[in-house]
Amino acid sequence: MDALGNNTVPSTPLNRRPIMKRNSQGLKQRPSHDTEREFGGTLGALCIPILLPLTVMFLICVSRSPEASLLQWPPALPSTDQLWDPLAPVLLLGWISLHALLYVLPLGKVSEGLVLRNGTRLKYPINGFHSLCISGVLLMLLLGLGAPLGSLFELLLPLAACAIAGSYLFSLYLYIRSFWVPSHALALGGNTGNPLYDFFIGRELNPRIGNFDLKYFCELRPGLIGWVSHPAGQHGQFTSRY
Predict the structure, then answer these.
(1) Structural domain boundaries of the chain?
(2) Alpha carbons 196 and 213: distance in angstroms, whole number
(3) DSSP string, 184-222
(4) From residue 81, how far is each of 77, 122, 155, 159, 167 by CA, in Å?
(5) Residue range 42-58: average pLDDT?
(6) Given a cut of 50, is residue 17 above it in pLDDT?
(7) Rounded to an integer, what distance in angstroms lies between the CA atom of residue 138 and that of residue 144?
(8) By C-alpha distance, which of 101, 113, 64 is closest to 237?
(9) How far apart are CA 178 and CA 207, in angstroms?
(10) pLDDT higher than threshold 50 for residue 177
(11) Alpha-carbon span 213 to 220, nearest angstrom
(12) Which terminal residue of the chain has fewer beta carbons within 10 Å of its beta carbon, N or C?
C-alpha cells in the first residue's frame, strides 16, 4: 500500500511483461509486398516499356526524314521492310558477344559488392574502362582498314528494332527465372506481387549465370560503350561522302 492508500504490486522479474522485439532478420527475409513503388507504380510500369521504345523508333524515323521535324504531319513512320535487315541481329549479337568476352577476361581488379541479406558478398570485375579502350582501338583499326562503318547509320532502324525485341525477350527470361531463386535473392522493391510492376522493376536482385552478373553487364557494357561506335560511324559516313 502506498501513501495514498492504493494497493500496488511491486514490479518484479516474475510479473513484468516481457518486451517483444521484432525479428529484424525475419523481416529482411520476408518478401516485400508493401514497398513504396517507383516510376509511377503500375501505370508507369505499363507505359514506360511501351512508350519509350516507340519514342526511340519515332525519333530515328524523324531524323531520317527529309524535313527532320517533330511537327511534320503525317509523322514519318517506317514500313515493315525498313524494320528488318538480316545484318542487324548479326551485328547486335556480335557486339554483345565481344563485350561478354571482355567482361570475363582477367583485366583490372575484382571488387566485392555490398553485404547481401544472406551475409555474402558478390564479386565484380572492374574492367569497364579496359573494355572501352579495347572497343575504341578495334573501331579505329576497322576504320583504318576501310571498313564501311558509315553504313551503320543506314541500319539504325533495324538495329533499334532488334535491340528492343531482344530486350523484351531477355526481360521475360529474367522474370521467369526469378521464380526459381531463393527468397533472399529477390529485390525488396521488385517482389510486390504485381506481375506488371515486378516485370518492369525486376524481381531478382542480382541475376547471374555462374559468376557472370547479367544486370551489371547490361547496365554498363553494350549500351554505354556502344556510344563509341557513333563517332566512328559518323567519321566513316563523312569520309565515304567526301
Answers:
(1) 84-241
(2) 24
(3) GGB-TTS-SS-HHHHHHH-SBSS-EETTEEHHHHHHHTT
(4) 12, 45, 12, 13, 21
(5) 93
(6) no
(7) 10
(8) 64
(9) 8
(10) yes
(11) 11
(12) C
Instruction: Look at phi and psi of residue 49 and say left if phi exceeds 0, alpha if psi is from -120 to 50, else beta.
Output: alpha
CA 144 to chain centre: 34
Which grid coordinates belong to 196?
506488371
Q: What is the pTM of this model?
A: 0.77
Which three three-digit cell numbers place residue 180?
526459381
| Per-residue pLDDT reduced to its tens digit, 206-215 | 999 999 999 9
Tell me: the pLDDT tens digits for 76-120?
788 888 899 999 999 999 999 999 999 999 988 999 999 999 999
Q: For residue 64, give the nearest of 75, 53, 49, 50 by alpha carbon.
A: 75
Cell of 59: 525519333
Q: Report whether pLDDT(144) > 80.
A: yes
Neighbours of 64 (CB within 10 A): 15
- Is residue 156 within a helix (H) or strand (E), and if so which, with residue range? helix 156-177
Report the distance separating Cα 214 and Cα 106, nearest Å.
18
User: Would you place residue 51 in the very low, low, confident or very high pLDDT band (cuts 50, 70, 90)?
Assistant: very high
Say how far residue 14 (Cα) sits from the centre of its chain.
Answer: 56
CB 185 within 8 Å of CB 204: yes
Q: Is 34 helix (H, G, I), strand (E, B) or coil?
A: coil
